[in-house]
Amino acid sequence: MRDAKASMGFIFATVLIDMISIGLIIPVLPVIAGSFSSTQADHAMAYLLVAGAFGLANFVGSPVLGALSDQYGRRPVLLIGFCGLALSFFVTAAATALWVLVAVRLVSGAMQANISVANAYVADITAPQDRAKRFGQLGAAFGVGFILGPATGGLLGAIDIRLPFVVAGSLALVNLAYGYFVLPESLPLDKRRAFDWRSANPISSLNKLAHLKGVGVLVVVIGLSALAQFILHSSWVLFTTFKFGWGPKENGWSLFAVGLVSVVVQGFLLPKMLQRFSSPRLVVLALVSSTLAYLGWALAPQPWMMFVIIGMNIFGYAASAAIQSIVSNSVDATRQGATMGAVASLNSLMAVLGPLIGPGLLTLVAELPRDDWRLGAPFLLCAGLQAVALVFALRFQRTHPVQPVNAHA
What is the pTM of this model? Predict the structure, then answer.
């Protein structure tokens, strides 16, 4: 099977298992971090350290791993990532001190570039005109993972707060075995590129990403949108716990709803959106939708409203596929890994800042009454970031008024 022709089915299965394992821990990781604290403010600070450690290491490691995948292929780099995840999950399950959580997240973050390498894998096996649709299918795998993972993690966490990490680590080992014995390599030898340390460092890779012909302005959109997303991710469980008293089960179901809408949009509605809207227009609509969603989450007085807003933010789940295809089509086949690694490095930089900003803001307002609007400060900031990204997206739209999302950029 290892020599079989690479196809979407192989990478879809890989990403699905990967995202289920990651999704399992989302409702419970803040709780584990908070178990080493005594107040809500200390709880937010502990989670800030844990989440920021992974993002910092991933910011440095992603472009290096992406460039390595351009030389040695996608498969071995994915295997390194599965090892990093398994290590992180099992050590977290056994951790007895906060510093252990921070240390293992640093190690696993440096070893993990699964999302960027999976995107490069898709680019390897897909013609430029079909990449938006394929990135949407990959996004659907993320969504399915977030349907199954967080809901299961919430239920398991209600039994034992460390049980989701044991199950997630086991799934990471399953993916390691699948990758080793089944997953074929997608990058032919004639399209590989020698590793260059100078271009693999995160600052250099971000500079090259910013200067991609015709799409450099999208780097601002990617960065601001990613920062808002990571502030949301790092604040969601803490915010709903502080404001509504949710536990792992309720947070698991809310993330289940996010995954469900993501699958519906990226797996079924995205092709119709691609027929109706150009890629720049789709990005604009997505940013308008997500700006309103962030405002709604920040100010929602009742917990059921969080679910309603998740369901209404349909366009917000479509931006990623459109942007990924534009950026991917701007480089040749030998640089897909490095380019997707640079995008991942940008996202990882935002993953460093997001947990500093989101839980940091919650640290300042954590002791306020539940009905105080200032508890929504992280999401209000997210809405502002999306509004600024919208300005840059409109600028890009003016220079690319009729470009379809599946065209070669």
Answer: 0.67
